[in-house]
Design brief:
With 132 residues, the chain is α/β, with parallel strands linked by helices. It has one domain: Cytidine Deaminase, domain 2, CATH 3.40.140. 22% of the residues lie in helices and 42% in strands. It has an eight-stranded mixed sheet with strand order 7-6-5-4-2-3-1-8. The chain is globular. The model has no long low-confidence stretch (mean pLDDT 87).
């Protein structure tokens, strides 16, 4: 299993890095799954906490016509990560984005999975080559 970021999604994350030294951003990943690959087409920034309520999350899922495939956050600590380990998130993609002091971005990608307890299963992330 792996994930692929579209140019548009990748440019969004790179753009956040340009305007902030420590982006405090979270949000939803929009795209589709084909076989064993998640295709992240777009990102949708949200307020802190990914969603305000479970009802709100399902309303967003309906609004995006079933294309919500996961979540992203910057600089996630253990507490923030635990908040997303919930039954409705099982099988979803989770991107944990970190910046170095030189504004270099690293993205760790996981699938939220379950085996006696919820956990993050690391998966490969394919980044696009950006067109100039």
């Amino acid at each position: 299993m792996d994930a692929y970021l579209s140019q548009e999604a990748y440019r969004f994350f790179l753009g956040l890095n340009l305007v902030s030294t420590r982006p405090n951003q979270e949000g939803l990943l929009i795209g589709h799954k084909r076989g064993h690959r998640f295709f992240v087409e777009k990102v949708f920034p949200t307020k802190k906490g990914f969603y305000s309520s479970l009802e709100n999350y399902f309303a967003l899922e309906e609004h995006f016509r079933g294309k919500l495939i996961g979540f992203f956050t910057y600089e996630a600590d253990a507490k923030k990560k635990r908040k997303i380990l919930l039954p409705f998130a099982c099988g979803q993609l989770f991107l944990d984005i970190h910046l170095t002091k030189k504004k270099k971005m690293t993205i760790k990608s996981y699938i939220i999975d379950y085996k006696k307890d919820f956990y993050f299963l690391p998966v490969d992330l394919k980044l696009p080559e950006l067109e100039v």
